[in-house]
Amino acid sequence: MSSTQRDLVSDEKHVYNVLRSERFLKMEGLSKEIPFFIYHFPPAWALDVEGLCDRVKTKLQSDDGLSVVEINLYDLAIGLLKDRGVWERVLDLEPTMDKAGFREVLQGMLDPHDHLAPAIRALLDNQPSDMVFLTGIGEVFPFIRTHTVLENLQSVVTGRPMLVWFPGIYEFTQTSGHQLRALNLSASDSYYRAKDILEQEA
């Protein structure tokens, strides 16, 4: 389904109906695959999608009695840097380094395996929930790449489904397989284990 055929109102209705369905909550029909789903949207929709995400979360909690843990990667990354006492250093470094060097430094500080996945595991251990929302992806790109986060969360987010709110394109092509293209940029990352929420039955 291309974005020209989509609109936010129908997307919101579809996403909400899928998330509240027994099939989704019980992770049925996955044939032993991990319960990761992606809602991909045009980056220009980002602000509107924030509102959509909040409304869906509120409705699931108030109308359906379902609990949702939202993990915002941007907030998590800043929190980790502050906890380790390096946030000020990062701010001081940025104007003095070229983009590639700065990206390398940040990627080391926010390595998904060493830093992000353990922090997310700790958050989830403290908050039982029916599902997980992963947001803040556009804000951390290219310092944190979605596919590396997802690869490292496969053994962390278990026993409940997760929806990734992804500003960009998630598509399948015969030549490349499943590709994530954050912010619709030409650089793409292979990741085949998530399902497109727009293709799921409500």
Description:
This is DUF1788 domain-containing protein. It holds the Pfam family BrxB. This protein is an alpha/beta fold and 202 residues long. The chain has a domain at 69-161. Helices cover 45% and strands 19% of the residues. It has nine helices and seven strands. The model has no long low-confidence stretch (mean pLDDT 91).
Topology record:
Layout: H1 8-19, H2 22-25, E1 36-41, H3 46-64, E2 68-72, H4 73-83, H5 87-93, H6 99-109, H7 112-126, E3 131-135, H8 137-140, H9 146-153, E4 162-173, E5 177-182, E6 189-190, E7 195-196
Parallel strand pairs: 1-4, 1-7, 2-3, 3-4
Antiparallel strand pairs: 4-5, 5-6
Helix pairs in contact: 1-3, 7-9
Give a short synopsis of this structure:
The protein has nine helices and seven strands; from the N terminus they run ααβαβααααβααββββ.
Supply the key terms.
202 residues; alpha/beta; 7-stranded mixed sheet; 9 helices; 45% helix; globular; DUF1788 domain-containing protein; BrxB
Report the strand count.
7
* Shape field: globular
**How much strand?**
15-25%
Distance between the termini: 16 Å
Structural class assignment? alpha/beta
> Gyration radius, to the nearest Å?
17 Å
Protein name: DUF1788 domain-containing protein
Pfam family, one: BrxB
InterPro entries: BrxB (IPR014858)
